[in-house]
Amino acid sequence: MIPRRRILAATSPLGWRQLVIAVALLAAGVAGGWATSATCAAAANKAAATRMSNVTDRDMKQMLVGSYAVTGTDPDGRGYSGTGIVDISMAPSGALELDWDNGRRVGIGQLLNNVLMVASTTKAGTVIMTMNVNPGGTLSGQWSRRRERGYEGTAHWTRI
User: Fold this and answer.
1) Do 45 and 65 belong together in one domain?
2) Are 89 and 12 contained in the same domain?
3) Which range marks the domain in which residue 87 is found?
4) Who contacts 143 (Cβ-Cβ below 8 Å, separation ≥6)?
5) Domain boundary at 53, 72, 87, which?
6) What pLDDT, on the 0 to 100 scale, is given for residue 29?
7) Residues 93 and 40 in one domain
8) Angle between helices 16-53 and 4-11 (to 10 degrees)
9) Which of 11, 65, 106, 158 has the largest CB neighbor count within 10 A?
């Protein structure tokens, strides 16, 4: 019986030692590639979190200033009939002022960590919202109207 070592060496264009080294390097490259990609992803997440933690509340609020397309669901689960617009501006006091659909609804917001808390009013009543500030500049969250106690709608805001 011919030892496997001789068969591999005879059938491979590389010698036995070169074959073992090539297989070891290939295995290390595969494992290293996985570890490198996982390490790079973890480092990128840490860097993004560090950048966000170094941003002051006022800077974060200033980053939210602008216009957003609004989509979402009503408390009954039906989607909004169309896309609305909300404009966010910053008052001299540092509070965020919100204006939906050219003043049909107005509100005031305050930022706590990465959550924008909003109180607004319309002819239909008072609304409170909690909106998560997401990576990429979108906001998403839930809202409740006083007249629909215990029921929540959803909202998603995308910068325009």
Assistant:
1) no
2) no
3) 57-159
4) 118, 127, 128, 129, 130, 152, 153, 154, 155
5) 53
6) 45
7) no
8) 80
9) 158
